[in-house]
Amino acid sequence: MYAFDFVRPKSLNEAVEALQPEEAMALGGGQTLIPTLKQRLASPSKLVSLKGVEEIRGICRDDQGRVCIGGGTTHAEVAAGVPEYPALAALAANIGDPAVRNRGTIGGSLANNDPSACYPAAALASGATIVTNTREIAADDYFEGMFMTALEEGEIITEVRFPVPQAANYQKFEQPASRFALVGVFVAKFEDGVRVAVTGASEEGVFRWTEAEEALSSNFSPDAVQGLSVPAEGMIGDLHGSPEYRAHLVGVMTRRAVAAAG
């Protein structure tokens, strides 16, 4: 580690102000950022802790029936606090271990956009809206590649708004050491169609599998995607699995998610 300033603002306005200097970084639960600092892969001049900003924590329903989750809400709180969206609660309950779930936040996960994180798949499949201190961003426009998002410097995720589907499920093939997704697939069935989002597989990060969406919108059953597959080209290849293996798992996890949702 190295020397840096550390501040704990009590309000969103104070946090935004503290992030104005160049090379300042927001700190949510720290489950990704702290290891990154230890490895000297990031060198902020200031860390701005969001833990004390109560206005970006909590869970509610809005007048459109969406589940609205504050960016500072922990995974454990999501797991216990969204009974009306069981697939989302189950996803949160299976992130990491208890220590991670009690410190990590949904805003921190989405801001980091790890290519194997679970929440990006939930947000993209749900057609969620990511709300920041300055604007609202549709999930389809938010994710821009591995560790890349539409967030600008100093922008803070204040809330994530999830439309609640008619049926949904998330299936994750875990990397056993990290409990990140080797491949994870979130399937959400809405009145106007089905959305399928895949995490852990692609070198470009989370993505929608549109071919499966079209098939499932006509026939919401595992058989509808039985003959479909994603190309291995562009899939992640590492010591845990080849691109071909991950491409195969996308189909397997999709079929399992549809079966469980149905």
TrEMBL record:
GO molecular function: FAD binding; oxidoreductase activity
InterPro entries: CO_DH_flav_C, CO_DH_flav_C_dom_sf, Diverse_Substr_Oxidored, FAD-bd_PCMH, FAD-bd_PCMH-like_sf, FAD-bd_PCMH_sub1, FAD-bd_PCMH_sub2, Mopterin_DH_FAD-bd
Keyword Oxidoreductase in record: yes
Keywords: FAD, Flavoprotein, Oxidoreductase
Alphabetical list of SMART domains matching this protein: CO_deh_flav_C
Occurrences of domain FAD-binding PCMH-type (ranges): 1-167
Domain of life of the native organism: Bacteria
UniProt-listed SUPFAM superfamilies: CO dehydrogenase flavoprotein C-terminal domain-like (SSF55447), FAD-binding/transporter-associated domain-like (SSF56176)
Alphabetized PANTHER family for the sequence: XANTHINE DEHYDROGENASE SUBUNIT C-RELATED
Protein name: Carbon monoxide dehydrogenase
Provenance organism: Rhodosalinus halophilus
